[in-house]
Structures are given as C-alpha cells and as structure tokens.
Specification:
Four copies of one chain form a homotetramer.
Chain A lengths: L2 H13 L4 H24 L2 H32 L3 H6 L1 H8 L2 H8 L17 H4 L7 H12 L1 H25 L10 H12 L12 H17 L1 H18 L33
Helix pairs in contact in A: 1-2, 1-3, 2-3, 8-12, 9-10
C-alpha cells in the first residue's frame, strides 16, 4: 500500500464524513472538544481548581496532545499545507493548542488560557453537516434578507439611546441613583429599552421614573419591529422552500406535497420535478 | 347482573367520559387532583404548616386513600393490568400515592413528598378531551413543524452563551462583580440574552457594561428569530386546518376547509354541514 | 317648549355625541374624569397630601358634585331609570360618587377612597366613539379569534409553572435564597418565564442556576407562541377588512384601494361598492 | 471666477453629496459630529473630567469653531438665509454651537452643556442619503400604517396600568415595599407589564405577589398584540414595495414590482431594468 493511498484514506477520515470511519472520527472529535471545553469551565471555578487542579492540568495536557496530533495530521494531509494553516479553521485549530504550550514559557498568563474556550468554534467543523440542513438554510436566508432592515433599525435604536441617556443624565443629576455619566446613562437606557432591567441603576426622581416609564413602553412597542422584519423574511424564505406546483386547469396554488389532484377543480396535478 | 357487565359499566365510567357518569367521575377526579395539589402548596409554607399541619396530614391521607382506590379500580378494570401499570399514566397514578406510604416507613424524607406535586400531570388524563380540540392541535402542529428550526436556533444561542460567558469572565475578572467562574458568567449571559435581567450579577467595569449592552441588543434582535419561526408555522398550521370530511370514493381524510375535490382521487367532496 | 322636548334635547347632549353640544359635553366629561383621577393620584402621595390636603379635598367635592349632578341627570333622562341604574355604566357612575359620601359617615375608610380610581372606566363611556374605529375592531376581532388558543397556551404555561416551582423549591431548599414555599417558587417561576426578572428571588445553588437558565431559554422560546397566534389572527382580521376586488378578466386579486386598472392585465376594474 | 460661481461650487459641496468633494465634506462632518459627541460623553465622566478636563475644553472649542464656520457658510450659501435659519436643521445647527458660547457668559450652567448632545441629530443630515433606502421606507411605511392600531393598543395599556397601579397600592399598603403612592405603583405596573422588571419595587405580600404574577402573564400575552400589528403591516409594506418605474402615458408612480400594467390608466409599463 503506497503512502499516497494511505494519505488518501486518512484524508477521507479526517476531512470528510461520508465513510463510517470518517463519521466515527467526527464524533470522537466532537466529544473531545466538548470535554476539553467543560474542563476549562470547571477549572475556572476557584473551589474546584484548588481541590482538583492537578487532574484538570493532566486532562488539559491530554486534550492538547490529541489536538496537536490532529493539527499535524491535517497539516500533513492537506494538499496545500500553507493554505490550510492560514485558513479560518487552520488558525482556530492552532489557537486550540497554542495557549497550553505558551503557559509553559509564561507561567503567569492565566487569562490567556481562556482562549482555549475558542475551541468551541471547532464544533462548527463537525457541524458542517448541519450547515446543509434545510432548517438552518431557511433561518440564515431570512436573516440575510433582513440584514439591511435590522441595521437601519439598530441605528435608530442607537440614536434613541444617546438621547434618552443624555436626558436621564440631566434629570437624575444629583439624586445619587447611578446616572453619574452619560455613558452609564446610555447603558441604563439599553438595559431598559431591551426590557432586560437589571435594577443596578434605576431612576430615583419622579420625573426620572416618568421618563423611564415612557422608555419602557417605547421599548415594548419597538420590539415589534425586528420581530415583524424577521417574520416576513422567514415567511418568504419558507415559501420559497416549498413546492410551487400549479393546477394546469384552474391555476390553483398551494397544493400539498402529497396531493395528486387539484383540491379546487379535481384535475390531475403535474408530477413533482425532483 | 354479571361481574363482566359491572366491569364493563365501570370501565365506561372510569376510562371514558361519554356518559353522564363518566363525565361526573372526571370532574370529581379533577377537583380531587387540584385540591390535593393545593394542599401540597399550602403545606410547603412553614407558617401554615406549623399552625394547621394536622389538618394537612388528614387531608393528605384522605386524598391518598381516594387515589389508591382509584388506582386499584383501574388495575382491576384494565383489560391488561400489567400494560396499564407500566404505561405512562399508570406510573404517574402510582407516583401520586406512593410518597405518602413511603413517608410512613422513612419519616425524614420531607422533600420526597414534593413528588406529590407530580399529581398535576394527572390533570392531563382529564384533559384528554381537550386534546381533541382544534386549537391545541394547531399549536402542537406548529411547534412540531418548527421543532428542527428551534433546535438549530437554540444550538446557536448556546454557542453564543459560551463565548459571551467566557469573554465577560475575562473582562470582569478581579472586579468582584460576581463573574467568578465561566459557568456563572454563562448563567449571567443567559439571564441577559433572554432579557430576564435579575441583577444578581451585573458587570461593574466600563468595558463589561459596554459588552453587556451589545449582548442585550443582540438578545433583543434574536428574539425575533423564534417568533418568526413559530409565526410562520402557526400561519401554515392554521391555513391547513382540516375538517373531518372524508372522501366518499377513496376514504382519504384531512381535507382542507376550502377543498371541493379530493386531493387523492379527484372525486367531488360532500358538502360541508354547517 | 315642553318638558318632553327639553328632555329630548338633553338626552341628545348627555347620551349621544352627534351634535356639537353632545360633543362638547363628552369633552368636558372626559376632562373632568381625567382631572379627578389625577387628583386621586396626587392625593396618594403622602408628601403632597400633607401640604395640599385641603385643596385636594375641595377639588374632590367639586368633582363629586359634578358627577352627582350628571348621575341624577342621566337617571332623569333615561327612558327606563331602573335599567340604567343597574346597567354596567350605571353602577360605575354610582361608584364614581359614592366613596366620597361614604367617607363622611365612616371617616377612617381611607383605602375605600381608592375606589374613586374606578372613575377611569368612565373614560370608556366617552370612547364609545373610538369603539367604532376600524383599528380597535381589528384588534378585538384578532383577540376574539385567538381566545381559545391563548387559553390553551396559558393552561400549558400554568402547569409548567407548577412543575418548575416545585422543582426549584426542592433544589434550593436550605440555601436561604427565598424559595421558602412552593407558591413563592411558583411566583419566581412566573417572574422568570415571562422574562420580567425582578431579582427579589434568584437561585443561589449551581443546580438551581442551571435549572433557572433552562427556564429562561424556555420562556424565551415559548413567548413565540402567543405572538404567532395573534400575528396570524391579526393577519386574517386585517385581510378580511380590506377590499376584495378581483379583476374580471384575469382574476388577479390584491388591488390597491386607489387602483382603477388591473396591474396584471390592464383591464378596467369594477367600481368599489361603498 | 465670479463670486456666484464660487457660491455655486460651495453649495454643491456643503448641501449636496453627489460630487466627490461633497461626499468628502459629508464624511468629514460625520466624523466631527461623532467625535464631538464622544467628547461630551467622556467629559460627563467625573474621573476623566478631573484628569483631562483641559484637553476636553480645547477639543470642545475646536469643534465649536468648526461648526460655527460651517453654520456661517450655510447661512451665506443658502438662497434664503432666513428660511434656513428658521428651518429644523438650521435650529439644530445653531444649538450645536450656542451652548459653548453661552458657557462663557454664564459659567455655572453645566447641565445646559448637555444640549450639545443634540448634535447627534445632525447625523441625520448626513443620513439624508440613507433616507432614500428602500429598507427604511418599508419600516416607516409599516409603522405609519399601524400608527392608529398602536395608539389604540397603548391607550388600553395605559388604562390597565391605572387599574393595576391603584390595586397594588391598596393591596401593598403598609407592607413598606415601595408602593407608597399611586403614581409609584403605576411606575411599578409599567416596569412589570413591559417585562423590564428592575426589582427596585416588588410586592412583599402574598396577595400582591399573586396579582403581580397575573400582571406578568398578562404582559407576556399582550406583547403579542403590537408584534402582530407590526408583522402584518410589515408584510403588507414588503409586498407593496414599489419600484421607481413611471407610467409612460400618465406619469403615475409607485408601481409594484410585479405590475405589468399601470394601475391608473391601464397602459403597459416599461420593462424592469435589471
């Protein structure tokens, strides 16, 4: 068996997922990614880090070793290694292992290690299958179609936030209720307009509370806008995804997928194309 | 009157609800379920438990006795007692009485008793009637049709939460504002993205507040996605809401309200009754 | 001028609003209602009550006198005084003046006086005009059409709240975070599911926070259901309210109100009926 | 080169944006506006004001000088200077520079300076281009079409707020939970109905919490109404989105994308360009 046919076989396993071996590789990779991200999660809990820190570090090195082997394998298999190394996923694959090695040289860079969370992006590598699903296509299509409208809407919201923020800053000045700068007031305006409402900052003066009430009702009303935009786009994307058979006799539309005869005039419907 | 005809009559009363006696049984059962659940609610309030604990325990045993009789009745009436005992509702019926008996043997298992709240599921037994209503059919149909899209959407939200959580954990580190581990940060991210906004954790640094504002606007925008998905599905489910007419020629069912010819064999459909 | 014609003229002024005098009466009544409700609002602010209490009481008696005169006038004008007195608005009109008189006899009934706020209902009397507006008709039509679906949805939400409330009560028991009874836990479940999120009660244990996150995402997803229901109903109600002219030649629909020719084949459209 | 042709050339630069110079002017103006607003933001942060106050004041005077030159330029270029000075943007342009000059005469008017934030409105001057975008036309069209319905809806919400506010004021009286006047209770009602939920005021009595839960579920359900209104209007506005084709015979505009014949005179429309 030649080296080339071995490369060819491994290529099918590592980069594709049509063969059983390729599917198994993808599933194993998915499990490893999820477990390594969970390890980062648990490591960030101080109480657990103190108790089980040693285990976490061992696990971390095991995952790093696995991902390093995988990275070198991909580099070797790729027809154009440089293009792979500089591609989006090539960089993500490198970022998945680099932080652990850097921590050997610079021991203090604790927060740099959270870059390891970026490994989650690698999940998308496995989800390339999902990408082809009709469902995600329709959602993405709807979002793409409403891209411009959402941008216009968010710009209008931003300008509104600047006004409301400045207004409340002036109104609540001196009441010691947290509106101590315009940026903070704008933060409050966003918290309120989006109906999140933490309560870490809330108006204390009657006028401030009145204006806040107006802002809330406004936020309540304008949430209808993005919803309307996406609903319409979703409706169109869904409609374009359904069959569009028309009765040859009476021109009735909206036939079911399973229909063989027109529900309006009873004429036999044309065969489906696919 | 033979035992068989008595069983037949009781079967009609206990398992069906077409006869007046069957309806009366269902209504009584509903009342008993609701009252027994309310008793559990009141019992959980310490102040009331101290005062009226004895009454609650008496009531509890009365309901347990009633439900035990009902359970034995169902076991006796069921054509295949074992199949009933292992069915979903069979287990729920058993869980409705078991905790009270266990409390005799293991007196300390206070929290085990909250399993009694599961009795609420038994309400669905009575609602089997409602199940046939056109309204709940349309809602369920819409949810079923958008199942896949909602899953894709929630997966995307989950990945977003992982990123935002990790990011805020790094940004807010050392500011003592509650972001002390990645899982807690992710909890905060969900609280914010869904616009719940408790305020038990909220960013204290300017950069953290800026990122929080971005997350809120994001959450405000993406709530449009599930709404759009369900609206479209609801629209289609409503549009395709079907009558109970059956084709006289090929027995095909599920014709639309507006259909005049059978979609399966092209025969003219009978006129609508109303 | 006979008494009957005076009654007739006053009837037109007080009960109808087609004449200029009738309109003026309605506007004056609206102003009086709004001002009297505002007085109740201001009276409830302790600081203002102490300072301007005397003025408020004077105003209160002026409004009571006005509404009493109006009530007697209506009693006198009504063709069937008893039917008016026992009608919905008759009772509301009486409730608008009674509390002030009762306060003479029972001086301590401070909170009884807030019944005066019910005067706001009287605003609807003036809004009977608005009632005929196409807009409110469409909204009410949509709500009426989705009545059953909303009920089914709210029942499902209620059962969900019972489960979540009981679950969190067990999980958060002993963590002193406010989940000290099932009803309080259910209150928290509603606060969270509806994305209100006060933060007066919020889970403290990791498991509790995890479950809370699940509840939030659930609430985020199911808000799409009522929105979808009402959107569809609103769409149908709006569609039924628009003109339904059809081109006599090519059967194209959806012509604009102002269109005179078919946009599809150029044939002159039929005249509008109204 | 005559003064008139210089004025003509500058007119094209300052008031229009079709020439490269005009575009460059618009971009520079946009940058200056954004930077001057950011300066106001930073100035409002006490900590930064203390440190870098001098820099901020220098920047402020530079921006004021630039905007003054621009204002005088516009006054000189405008064919009718008085009409420009009294137009909406004329006043906004003046308000953008006036506060800084007034601060020389009245040094204490700190809050007057926040009027400078109004400069943000000037951004719209540059966005006059955006105004022609199909996307913002559709959104505005949808909002205009649902204007009346939203008003009816908000009126109903307002009346609901009055009732709920008064009710909770009575129920929570004496529980020291913040419901100390009807206006404050109404503020709470809005905070809750809109699902903002600060938590600065939240009911403490069981009855109050029960009523609050009802209000939340209500708010959860009625948010569907504006969403439904705008979705339907957005759907219609999108459907009726018009091309810029003009009928060659009667000059009628606003034909639909799908139209083949003029809706006004029935003449065949020219083919679409793309």
């Amino acid at each position: 068996m030649s080296l080339d046919s071995i490369r060819e076989r491994w290529w099918k396993i590592v980069f594709e997922s049509d063969t059983p071996a390729g599917k198994a590789f993808d599933v194993l990779l998915l499990v490893a990614i999820v477990l390594s991200v969970l390890t980062v999660f648990l490591e960030s809990i101080v109480r657990l880090e103190i108790k089980y820190g040693a285990y976490f570090h061992t696990l971390e090195w095991i995952f790093t070793a696995l991902f390093t082997i995988e990275y070198l394998l991909r580099l070797w298999l790729a027809r154009k290694p440089l293009r792979y190394a500089t591609s989006f996923f090539g960089i993500v694959d490198l970022l998945a292992v680099l932080p652990t090695y850097i921590s050997l040289i610079l021991p203090g860079t604790h927060y740099l290690l959270t870059i390891r969370v970026l490994r989650v992006i690698r999940v998308f590598r496995v989800f390339k299958l999902v990408d082809h699903l009709k469902e995600s296509r329709i959602i993405l299509e709807a979002l793409r179609a409403s891209r411009m409208k959402i941008t216009v809407f968010l710009t209008a919201v931003l300008l509104l936030v600047v006004f409301i923020g400045s207004l409340l800053y002036v109104v609540e000045a001196g009441s010691n209720s947290g509106f101590d700068s315009i940026p903070r007031s704008m933060y409050w305006a966003i918290v309120t307009l989006t109906t999140v409402g933490y309560g870490d900052i809330s108006p204390a003066t009657p006028l401030g509370q009145f204006l806040a009430a107006v802002v809330m009702v406004l936020g309540y009303a304008i949430i209808a806008v993005p919803t309307g935009i996406v609903s319409v786009a979703m409706s169109q994307a869904t409609h374009q995804a359904t069959t569009t058979r028309v009765c040859t006799h009476c021109m009735a539309e909206d036939h079911r997928d399973s229909a063989e005869f027109c529900y309006h005039c009873g004429t036999r419907l044309p065969d489906r194309g696919n």
